[in-house]
From TrEMBL:
The chain crosses the membrane at residues 55-73, 80-102, 108-130. Residues 140-179 are annotated as: Disordered. It comes from Brevibacterium samyangense. The lineage of its organism: Bacteria, Bacillati, Actinomycetota, Actinomycetes, Micrococcales. This is Tryptophan-associated transmembrane protein (Trp_oprn_chp). Keywords: Membrane, Transmembrane, Transmembrane helix. It holds the Pfam family Trp_oprn_chp.
Length: 179
C-alpha cells in the first residue's frame, strides 16, 4: 500500500492523537515519588501528584503540525518536515525510555510511549521516502501549453482560418481567455 498525500497526513495525525492521549495519562504515580506527601520533606520544584511531562505533549503537537504541513511543500520541504516529524517522535520515545531506564516506570504508559514514538519515526521516515513520488499541486488555472488550443495552435494565430465554435467553447471550458 503506497501512502498518498492524504493517507500520510491522516496516519500521522492519528499517531499524534494517540501520542496526545498517552501523554495525558499518569506515567509515574505519586506513590513512586518518595517526597510526595511526606511532611517535613521538601518536594522537588515542578512536581505534582501525577508526573506527566510537558515534553510529551509538545512532541505530539509537533507531529500533528508537521503532518499538516506536508501538503504545503515540495519535495525538499517534505523531506525536511518528515525529518522534524521523525525527530519529534524519537523525542517522545526517549522520554518513555528515560522513565523506564530510571526505574520510575510503574505503569505501562512509558512502554506505550516508546512504541508510539518509534512507530511515529518509522512512519515519518516512510512518508519522507514515499513522498518523492507525489505530484506537485496543479491548479486548474495552470494550463498545459503543449495541448491543442494553447498558444500557437489557436485560430487567432492563423488569420485565414474561421473560428470553430466548438474549439472556442472548449478553450473557454479550459479557462483560456478568448479576447
Amino acid at each position: 500500500m503506497t501512502l498518498t498525500r492524504s493517507r500520510a497526513v491522516l496516519v500521522l495525525l492519528a499517531l499524534a492523537g494517540l501520542m496526545w492521549i498517552v501523554s495525558a495519562q499518569t506515567w509515574i504515580p505519586a506513590e513512586a515519588n518518595p517526597a510526595a506527601g511526606v511532611p517535613g520533606v521538601a518536594a522537588e520544584v515542578g512536581t505534582s501528584d501525577t508526573a506527566t511531562s510537558p515534553v510529551l505533549t509538545a512532541c505530539a503537537a509537533v507531529v500533528a503540525v508537521t503532518a499538516l504541513l506536508l501538503v504545503m511543500f515540495g519535495k525538499l520541504g517534505r523531506l525536511v518536515i518528515t525529518g522534524l516529524t521523525a525527530l519529534a517522535a524519537l523525542g517522545y520515545a526517549a522520554v518513555g525510555l528515560g522513565d523506564v531506564l530510571a526505574g520510575e516506570a510503574t505503569t505501562a504508559w512509558p512502554y506505550v510511549g516508546i512504541v508510539l514514538g518509534v512507530l511515529g519515526a518509522v512512519v515519518a521516515s516512510g512518508v519522507g521516502l514515499g513522498s518523492r513520488s507525489w505530484q506537485a499541486n496543479v491548479s486548474r488555472y495552470d494550463r498545459d501549453t503543449s495541448a491543442a488550443g494553447g498558444p500557437g495552435n489557436g485560430p487567432e494565430d492563423d488569420p485565414g482560418e474561421d473560428v470553430d465554435p466548438t474549439r472556442a467553447w472548449d478553450s473557454l471550458s479550459r479557462g483560456d481567455d478568448p479576447s
